[in-house]
Write a structure and sequence with these properties.
The chain is an alpha/beta fold. Helix content is 40%, strand content 23%.
Length: 297
């Protein structure tokens, strides 16, 4: 299983980003990763401040950059930091700059804070950044659990499912957490006599799930795990219902490439999970060419 070498956390000094810092610091320390702490000053704000004070825009930019570096160091003061930490202040459009830095440092994981229920559980910066950055994105709401003891991987047998399972197992191992693999099999909409079947161990997809587990090498990861299968005419509803019961500390689910993240903003299962604010949610991208056909059993 590949190691997490670089973790980037975006900081805007909101309550959500404070919780995101805590998660990023702990994960980087446990995984022995390099931590990149990044704040972005909006370029338009520098111009406004310069005009109001009569200062040169270049001078104001240098001044604010130095001030923000100190603020970043203060924001992480007192924390048990990993050995390798970088603080960086960028100037520009926040979303694009977070994406740019993530590419520059080859980030394996980007951690961003959500604003909480005042913004329907999803900060606009967090979700729009998730659409641009190539790495997996961990959205951390405020408040959030202090650590992950139970991780749920939502597996739908789409092309991204293998990556979802790998990422979930990797974080479960870092956090010394238990892993639950959740799959909901879609029943035909006309199946009125069996709208929902709980604990469907006889699911027709079970052989494919078992092959996926074998391909990922889950048994060799050293993580205690459990398979949870359900059946429902509305898989999205059943995913939410199952998460309500399990109450995980971390949910891992996937979307397929950039188009998938656009769909996330329009009301997919992923967005519904985030908006319900169960816990931090790790969004995993599928980087290979997307397929519109399901894998043959």
């Amino acid at each position: 299983m590949q190691q997490i070498r670089n973790i980037l956390v975006g900081v805007d000094f909101s309550p959500g980003s404070e919780v995101a810092i805590d998660w990023a610091v702990r994960l980087a320390r446990n995984a022995e990763s390099r931590l990149h702490v990044v704040h972005v000053i909006d370029k338009s704000a520098i111009g406004e401040v310069a005009r109001s004070t009569g200062a040169l825009e270049s001078s104001m930019r240098d001044f604010l950059t130095r001030e923000m570096i100190q603020c970043l160091e203060q924001a992480t003061a007192g924390l048990d930091l990993p050995q390798a930490v970088d603080w960086e202040v960028r100037v520009g459009a926040p979303i694009q700059e977070i994406a740019t830095v993530s590419r520059m440092v080859s980030a394996d994981l980007v951690v961003l804070g959500c604003r909480g229920r005042a913004d329907d559980g999803v900060g606009s910066l967090a979700t729009r950044s998730a659409a641009l950055v190539p790495a997996s994105v961990l959205l951390v709401p405020s408040p959030a659990p202090a650590a992950a003891t139970t991780v749920v991987a939502c597996v739908d047998l789409s092309p991204v499912s293998g990556t979802v399972l790998q990422e979930a197992a990797r974080l479960a191992r870092i956090e010394s957490a238990a892993l639950k693999v959740l799959h909901v099999n879609r029943l035909p909409w006309f199946n009125l006599n069996s709208v929902r079947r709980a604990d469907s161990k006889g699911s027709s997809n079970l052989p494919r799930i078992q092959r996926l587990v074998q391909d990922v090498g889950l048994d060799a990861c050293g993580v205690p795990w459990e398979l949870v299968t359900r059946e429902h005419t509305d898989p999205s509803f059943e995913v939410l219902s199952s998460l309500e019961k399990v109450k995980p500390d971390l949910v891992v689910l996937g979307v397929s490439g950039r188009s998938g993240f656009r769909h996330l903003l329009l009301g997919s299962t992923a967005e519904r999970v985030i908006r319900r604010e169960f816990s931090p949610v790790l969004m995993v991208k599928h980087h290979e060419r997307e397929s519109t056909q399901e894998e043959k059993p």
